[in-house]
Every structure is written in structure tokens, then in C-alpha cells.
Amino acid sequence: MDSPQTRKTGLNLPSGMNETSLRLETFSGSFRAISSLSSPSSSRSSTCSDRFIPCRSSSRLHTFELIEKKGSPAKEGGNEAYNRLLKSELFGADFGTFSSPAGGGAQGSPMSPNKNILRFKTDHSPGTNSPYSPSILGHDNGFSSESSTPPKMPRKVPKTPHKVLDAPSLQDDFYLNLVDWSSQNVLAVGLGTCVYLWTASNSKVTKLCDLGPNDSVSSVQWTREGSFISVGTNLGQVQVWDGMQCKKVRTFGGHQTRTGVLAWNSRILSSGGRDRNILQHDLRVSSDFISKLVGGHKSEVCGLKWSHDDRELASGGNDNQLLVWNQHSQQPILRLTEHTAAVKAITWSPHQSSLLASGGGTADRCIRFWNTANGHQLNSIDTGSQVCNLAWSKNVNELVSTHGYSQNQIMVWKYPSMAKVATLTGHSLRVLYLAMSPDGQTIVTGAGDETLRFWNVFPSMRAPVSMEETLMR
């Protein structure tokens, strides 16, 4: 038979402990179980705490602002994004709908079964608007936002060239173009009266031609396929050579003096001379040239570049003019005169149609960007130095410029922000020559210090992206 004491309390008490030895006391809304290990006659000071069970209503979540107070506006300048993240990670996405029980301290207030406060939960709802998505903590909730992407670390560009080649007799002349890199990975360099070919894959050097003691090389330019190379001479000739067999294919005349710049499109070779003329040559036609672009420049033509779609030809001259021609007109369709010095540096964007960049000489020092569809200048950046060359990366929306007086540096820029990615130094004289490797990662620069320096400045080709993403880089 159960004792009367057992029947009354429903508890099996150890011997020596009666019902009054176990008490439940409430302190400020919290339950504390106090067990007396002494006799009933012992004083309260002999009691000890067994455990502490906090009441939800007495927790200090309000202190840390994890529960939003009704009717209280958000603190100005408060870190709301951090609070949302903390609540989401600790208490689940629906914690924000929880409010403390009425009265703030009622011990028996019921809690909804799905409001377990100490429960981790990954928020998979697509409607979350937190700028700090849980996906950055290893949970993928399908939420994507530009603000959820952590800022990218700046790309590191090596400050020193990975290779330096001697280039004796490389002329220190701003108006010449003596270096070009073919799509077949062969570098052509004009040194004095000779043109040399350097094969990048095995560093083999081959002499392509020697113009003799009465002439010298003033320009070189590969075809886009990399099989033929054109050579401009100081006497005004334009020679075309088979780069594989080192055999001359054709000689064009027409210029009265040196041919300082050459540019191929798919089938036409354009040449610019000190005689201020631009000639169009065609290997399939027996005549020296098929057309002459006259009345454009008033001084030596030193910059020449076809657009990637072969529709437009940009030319720069010592008359400070930048002209744009189309395939059919013998008069320029655009005459851009904002530069205040010679325009040698010209490059077309491979990422955006009708986007042209040009650089001015010592008195100008600016890189200018143009929309050739309407002739508007889009931007102008003062680089602080003579702009000798420009080249646009085909892998990313960046470009590289080389400079002369007075810094002799190489600069890599992001477009369109024109933030500087890197500034490279090493040449002791003006960096007059520039070419890019076929993979678009390496550039080679040449200067009157008679060296060629190879720099790794651009990343490798990325996976195809949309035009909008390309332009925003």
C-alpha cells in the first residue's frame, strides 16, 4: 500500500525528505528549482541551485533588438541587415513574425508549435529581401542579388616582365610601328634594315628579310590569319612576305616617302605615309593600289586601325586629327579634332560596336573614347604622359596603354570606369611599341632602350557572358 504521503504528492521521496523540502519559487518571472539536502529544519542559506530554466518572456532578446518592438521606428543608422541575418541564421526565417506573450511575463502563455526559438532553419523562401543571403554562409536559398556578392579582390598584375629580349637597333621614333605579334604566335620586329621573326613557342629566331644599306624598316603588320606579313620601308614601299616560307610575295609602290603604319582587314591592306596619304592595296589586283584616301590628313599618318567588322578605318596623324573612313568613301565620314597632339595610339573595342579609343602625344596626354556611330566623345582621361600605344583586351573589358614623356610607363585600365588596374615600369626610354599575344594574356613592349619586355597583364578568356555583363566590367 502506498503511504498517504505518496498518494498526496504523487512523488517518491527519498527517506529523510518530506514534501516541504521541495519548493518551486518564482523570481522575476523565472522558475528556479531549489532542493534542500538538509533536514526540514535547516535554514534557507543551506539551499543550492540545481538548474536555471529561463522564461522566454524574461529573456533579453529586446536588449539585443532581436525582437522588434511594435510601433518603434528603426534606429537611424542601425545595422538592420546584420539583425536580419542573425535572426535568420539563429531562429529561422519566420522568427520575425514572433512576438513575446501578452503581459511580458505570463508563465502559462501558449507558444505556437512551429515557433521553436532554439532551432536552426535554412530559409528556402524566394521572397527574402536580405542583402546578406544565407547562401554566403554555405546555404543556398535561391536568392541572388548584386549586393549579396562579396566584393572581388583586385586582380594582381606582376610588376616585372617575365621575359626580356635584346633588340639592337630598335629605333626611338614615335611615328614608326616596328613590332607585331601574329595569330600563329610569331613576333615580328623591325631592327634597322632587317625584319626578324621570333617564334614564342620555342624562342627560335629567323631573319625574314634585309632591305640593304639604302633602306630601313618603318613598319610591320601581320594579316589576321598570321600567314603573311607586310613590311613598310623608309623609301615608301610596301612589301608582302610569306611568313612561313620567308618568301616575298608582292611589292607595292605609291608612297613618296616612308610608310610608317600598316593595317590589314580581311582582304585589304591599308598603308599610311609621311606624304599624308592613305593607300588601299589588294593582293588580287595587279596595280599598286586600288584607292587613295586624300584630303584627310595635313601631316604624316602615324596611326591606322580597321574595326573588327572591317566596316570602318580609323586614322591618326601628326596634324592632331583622328579621322574615320568607311569602306566606300574616299572622304572621311568623321573628323575628330579634340586632340592637341599627334594621334598614333588607336584601338577599337572588341566588346562593343562603334567604340573607338585614341591617345594623344606629349602636348595632349589624353585617352579619348568615341562613339563613331554619331561622332560623340564619350570620355577623356588625362594620363599625365605622352600616349604611344593603345590595345583593348579581347578577354576582359580592359585596355592597356604605353607612354613616353615623361613617365615611360605601361598602364592597365578598366573600362568604362577607367580605374587603374596596374602601372608597370622598366623601360628607360619611351615605350613606343606594343603588341599582344594571340591568347590575349601577354603583351610585349619595345622602346628605344633596345629591349623587348613581355608582361602578363590580362586574365585568360572567360566563359561566354552576355553583352550587358561585358559592358559592366
TrEMBL record:
It comes from the Eukaryota. Pathway: Protein modification; protein ubiquitination. The keyword Repeat applies. One of its GO terms (molecular function) is ubiquitin ligase activator activity. CDD domains: WD40. Residues 165-455 form the CDC20/Fizzy WD40 domain. Keywords: Cell cycle, Cell division, Mitosis, Repeat, WD repeat. GO terms for biological process: anaphase-promoting complex-dependent catabolic process; cell division; positive regulation of anaphase-promoting complex-dependent catabolic process. Pfam families: WD40_CDC20-Fz. Residues 101-162 are annotated as: Disordered. One of its GO terms (cellular component) is anaphase-promoting complex. Belongs to the WD repeat CDC20/Fizzy family. This is CDC20/Fizzy WD40 domain-containing protein. It comes from Acer negundo.
